[in-house]
């Protein structure tokens, strides 16, 4: 009975983790289950999988649309709608805080403001422009899109890795900070790197090299953000996702 009870507890935690990952990272109206540090760890570990599924949907849509700027813009718009634009909001708030050159509580106060400053507006415009430009024409295939969106969500797992503190004692950052073990990140990175071999036809190394470079840049970005803010927040997770996704899809378009 003890083993059966333990197995049921593991299954329940996994299901609740999937629910939390879906409700946090997509617009799908999935009813949340138990929310605690255990389910948060599972949800943040599953983030790359959710990203891959989002990329698959967007890649399929992109293949059906005209390979023009309009088609690319519609694909990017669909990506924003599927995530409720939360990652873009986090990007704007994080960039505003970083652009202020303030540290600690002062930077966090800027991040919490309801309005978006000029740095944030510029960041959103540039990110959407870069994504749409990268998707224009036949420069990327469906696997490049899946790779980019999976790598972007891997950035969330990296931000939530063991040893990284939360900037505030409350909020999403406090719930998920320091929950994801390094081996989980390593396995996800290897799987995404393997998938990336199909992202650039004609070469096996270009896709994985792009993924490796973006992962390295993500670690550096998070080190800087943690130093400035004292840890991670939900906004930092959103910013990391958008920057990693954009960097990946732009780089894959350039090497294709």
List keywords for this structure.
cell membrane, transmembrane helix, cobalamin 5'-phosphate synthase activity, transferase
Overview of this protein structure:
One of its GO terms (cellular component) is plasma membrane. Pathway: Cofactor biosynthesis; adenosylcobalamin biosynthesis; adenosylcobalamin from cob(II)yrinate a,c-diamide: step 7/7. Its cofactor is Mg(2+). Belongs to the CobS family. It is a multi-pass membrane protein. The structure is a single chain. With 256 residues, the chain is mostly helical. It has one domain (44-255). It is 74% helix and 0% strand. The protein contains 12 helices and no strands. It has helices at 2-25, 37-45, 47-64, 69-82, 86-99, 104-112, 118-135, 142-159, 172-176, 182-195, 206-229, 234-255. The termini are far apart. The model has no long low-confidence stretch (mean pLDDT 92).
Structural class: mainly alpha
Query: Termini separation (Å)?
Result: 56 Å
Share of helix, binned: over 70%
Major sheet description? none
Enzyme class: transferase
GO molecular function: adenosylcobinamide-GDP ribazoletransferase activity; cobalamin 5'-phosphate synthase activity
Main location: membrane
Transmembrane segments: 40-58, 64-82, 116-134, 140-160, 172-196, 202-222
Ordered list of secondary-structure elements with their pairings:
Layout: H1 2-25, H2 37-45, H3 47-64, H4 69-82, H5 86-99, H6 104-112, H7 118-135, H8 142-159, H9 172-176, H10 182-195, H11 206-229, H12 234-255
Short description:
This is Adenosylcobinamide-GDP ribazoletransferase. With 256 residues, the chain is mainly alpha-helical.
């Amino acid at each position: 009975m003890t083993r059966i009870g333990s197995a049921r507890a593991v299954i329940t935690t996994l299901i609740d983790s999937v629910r939390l990952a879906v409700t946090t990272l997509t617009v799908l109206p999935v009813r949340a289950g138990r929310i605690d540090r255990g389910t948060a760890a599972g949800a943040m570990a599953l983030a790359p999988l959710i990203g891959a599924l989002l990329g698959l949907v967007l890649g399929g849509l992109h293949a059906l649309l005209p390979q023009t700027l309009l088609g690319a813009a519609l694909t990017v718009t669909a990506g924003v709608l599927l995530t409720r634009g939360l990652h873009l909001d986090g990007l704007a708030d994080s960039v505003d805080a970083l652009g202020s050159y303030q540290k600690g509580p002062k930077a966090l106060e800027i991040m919490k403001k309801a309005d978006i400053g000029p740095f944030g507006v510029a960041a959103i415009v540039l990110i959407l422009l870069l994504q749409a430009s990268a998707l224009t024409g036949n420069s990327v295939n469906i696997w490049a899109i899946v790779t980019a969106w999976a790598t972007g969500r891997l950035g969330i797992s990296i931000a939530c890795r063991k040893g990284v503190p939360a900037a505030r004692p409350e909020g999403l950052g406090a719930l998920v900070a320091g929950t994801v073990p390094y081996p989980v990140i390593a396995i996800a990175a290897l799987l995404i790197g393997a998938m990336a071999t199909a992202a650039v036809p004609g070469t096996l190394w270009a896709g994985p090299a792009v993924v490796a470079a973006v992962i390295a840049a993500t670690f550096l970005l998070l080190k800087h953000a943690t130093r400035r803010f004292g840890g991670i927040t939900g906004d930092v997770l959103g910013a990391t996702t958008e920057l990693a996704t954009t960097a990946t899809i732009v780089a894959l378009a350039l090497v294709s």
